[in-house]
Amino acid sequence: MCLAVPGRVLDIEERDGTRMATVDFGGVVKEVCLEYLPDLQVGEYAIVHVGFALQRLDEESAKQTLELFAQLGMLQEEFGDPWELAAEAGGATPPVGEAVIEEVRK
Questions:
Q1: CA 10 → CA 30, 47, 52, distances in Å?
Q2: Could you give the CA distance from residue 47 to residue 4 in angstroms, rounded to a whole number?
Q3: For 33-90, what is each residue's pLDDT tens digit?
Q4: What is the C-alpha separation between 21 and 63, in angstroms, rounded?
Q5: What's residue 89's pLDDT?
Q6: With the C-alpha atoms ordered 94, 97, 99, 104, is the resulting torsion angle positive or negative?
Q7: What backbone phi and psi angles, to 5 degrees, belong to 93?
Q8: Between 14 and 94, where is the model more confident?
């Protein structure tokens, strides 16, 4: 499954004429294209899908959504280590996502 996940913009730069951001998704940091939200600023939250920021989101809604995703294990599914996910699929017990949940609550 591929989710649209809220994230907080950490920094913004232009690369080869494209506005890009480093975005924090509850402890997981990824590069995101901002072409659909050209006025998004550092510190703001956006919903991101397949590497593109699609919609601005308020901080409270973003944190609630990230916490819910973490509790449901969806952040691990979306951003988790592929080796861990393969081990889980093979019947191994995955580590508990408490660290992710605690990071989101901050």
A1: 10, 14, 15
A2: 6
A3: 999 999 999 999 999 998 999 999 999 999 898 888 778 777 665 665 555 656 666 7
A4: 19
A5: 65
A6: positive
A7: -80, 120
A8: 14
| Cβ pair 61, 7 in contact under 8 A | no
> Dihedrals φ, ψ of 9, to 5°?
-75, 125
Burial 21-58 (b: 16+ CB within 10 A, else e): bbbebbbbeeebbbeebeebeeebbbbbeeeebeeebe
Q: Which pair of tokens denotes residue 9?
A: 């913009």
Tokens of 31: 């590069």
Q: Kindly state the tokens that stand for 66.
A: 């990230």
- The Cα–Cα gap between 105 and 58 comes to 15
